[in-house]
Design brief:
The structure holds two protein chains of two kinds.
Chain A (H helix, E strand, L loop, with lengths): L1 H28 L4 H6 L8 E2 L18 E8 L5 E6 L5 E6 L5 E6 L7 E7 L1 H8 L10 E4 L4 E8 L7 H9 L2 E4 L3
Parallel strand pairs in A: 6-7
Antiparallel strand pairs in A: 1-2, 2-8, 3-6, 3-9, 4-5, 4-8
Chain B lengths: L1 H26 L6 E4 L2 E4 L9 H10 L9 E6 L13 E6 L6 E7 L15 E2 L11 E6 L6 E4 L7 E7 L17 E6 L1
Parallel strand pairs in B: 7-8
Antiparallel strand pairs in B: 1-2, 3-9, 4-7, 4-10, 5-6, 5-9
The chains are: A alpha+beta, B alpha+beta.
Amino acid sequence: MVRSLLYVVGGVLFGLVIHLVVILILPRIAENSVYTRIAAMDALNKTTLLPLPAPGEPNPLHLDPDMSYALCKLQLSAGPGELTGTLPFSFWSVAVYDNTGAVLYSTTNRDGIGQTLDLGIFDPAQTRLLAEQKIDISPGLLIVEARTDEVFVVVRLAPEHPSMRARYEAQLERLACRNIAI
Amino acid sequence: MRFLLNLLLMLVVALSVGFGLSWYALSDGRLFGAQQYGPWTTWTRAGAPDPDPYTRAFITRNASLQLGQAEGLQLIATADSDGRRLERACRYRVDGHTPTSTFWTLIPVDDKDASIARPDGPPGFHSNRIARANDGSMQLYFSKTLAPLNWVELTGDGPFSLALTLYDTVIFSGVGSSETTTLPSIIRESC
């Protein structure tokens, strides 16, 4: 009886190890992550509007139907990335994600940016070159350092009224998303 | 023979504990990375640049676009304030105030995160488009049958969830530590 109890205790301890391994390796082995969903969209070096799901349709990215979304993928191995343009006075926010779906950086237009989005994304090597002034960038560029070369940026824009959505989304689509030549 | 039985017992316990605990951590998650405030649950570190391992695993499993910490926070309720599962056959009143934010949305969704509001109406409530009491409080109704004041008509059958998204919020910024106590309650009125 005591021996069986010891096996149960051993099983619990082994189970805790399995649990820790599952939690730690899941982000590396998952085949259906947000990045794989994003990778299927044609948004490399260009701004693409994310279609909002119709009522009753699955919404795997958990998009808020009251918002408009623009997506841009960047491959930093081809050079630093930038996302620039002008957005409406309404609330908007921008988030930079790495290839695990974690948010590397986010901000909103309430943080003193105003209407102009001028975002530069650099990997650690490019940030070093930037610090050594070996890369020319436009003044006022908001610099974000990414851990990985595969990143994507999502801009969320809140139309104040549903009737303004089409005009706001046209402005979202005009955002320039590209690599900076170095 | 006894050794083999004990070994089998150990394996069964290990696999049950290992995978069961992992499933719980990434679904309910309250003992790990998720926080609960009344009926509302949220993963507070989901929008952080350096999420802890549990939150990182949650982000992977969830596979959705998380809001960055500066952008806002999403809270989910799957049960009312008395702990009973939200059912579309019942009428619910969301009552009270919300934490300080630039604006918020409150959407009824099914298990695939699809809006279950009437297709030709608004998908849910928007803070700029609701009627409030003189003290700023709100009473929002979700039901399949007609309700007073602010009402979103539900469709379909079965359980549902409420997704409250606070944009540009100070809920966990340390500004006003009682912000989480201002989350609204969810009251089941009738079924």
